[in-house]
Specification:
194 residues, Lipocalin, two-stranded antiparallel sheet, 2 helices
Length: 194
């Protein structure tokens, strides 16, 4: 990584995700003609960086039951055995295995995602958006992460054929994360601020 990103992340420390100013979202294609978007409302994550960004460790946990798509009946279906089966598998977790610095504030994160009782590798494209002090004196860094996964690879294969080669829900899920992370030694219970 070059330029400002080096200074943004490679100076080390522990950074925690601020859920109040972050979003863990996803998007799927519905009936092959439109996009349904949703997000998880409860999650936590930590970036542990000791010198070199390539050696950093990233871990995250998501409460599967906190899924929200704006439609209660659909959310209830997603929580059931056809999809997340949130009673049996309440947590979605991610642990990084490799981080590759790139150019222009960008890097690639490779890790193991565990969902629905299955662990599979996932790759995320990350961009550092900027760094600065917030109004409460906390040092923050903004990140955007994008990726894709096959839900079928995690044993979530429910679908309904619609004819003409179309299905109700795409197998491919787009991951869309907007994260505000706070350097721990500067955090003063910032996640409680609005």
């Amino acid at each position: 990584m070059s330029g400002h990103s080096d200074a943004s992340l490679q100076d080390g420390g522990i950074w925690v995700v601020d859920p109040a100013h972050s979003r863990v979202g996803f998007a799927v294609t519905f009936m092959g003609i439109s996009t349904v978007r949703g997000a998880f409302e409860r999650f936590q994550g930590t970036f542990r960086i000791d010198g070199d960004l390539a050696d950093a460790e990233i871990g995250a946990e998501i409460d599967a039951a906190s899924i929200h798509t704006g439609q209660a009946q659909r959310d209830a279906h997603l929580l059931g055995s056809d999809f997340f089966d949130a009673r049996q598998f309440p947590t979605v977790s991610f642990v990084s295995t490799q981080i590759e610095p790139l150019e222009d504030e960008r890097f690639t994160i490779v890790g193991e995602l565990t969902m629905h009782g299955v662990t599979r590798p996932v790759e995320l494209d990350a961009t550092a958006l900027g760094r600065g002090l917030d109004p409460w004196g906390n040092e923050r860094l903004g990140l955007e992460l994008h990726g894709e996964l096959s839900r079928g690879a995690f044993g979530i294969s429910f679908n309904q054929p619609l004819g003409a080669g179309r299905v109700a829900v795409s197998d491919t899920v787009e991951l869309l994360l907007d994260l505000s992370v706070i350097k721990q030694d500067a955090s003063r219970d910032a996640t409680e601020e609005e």
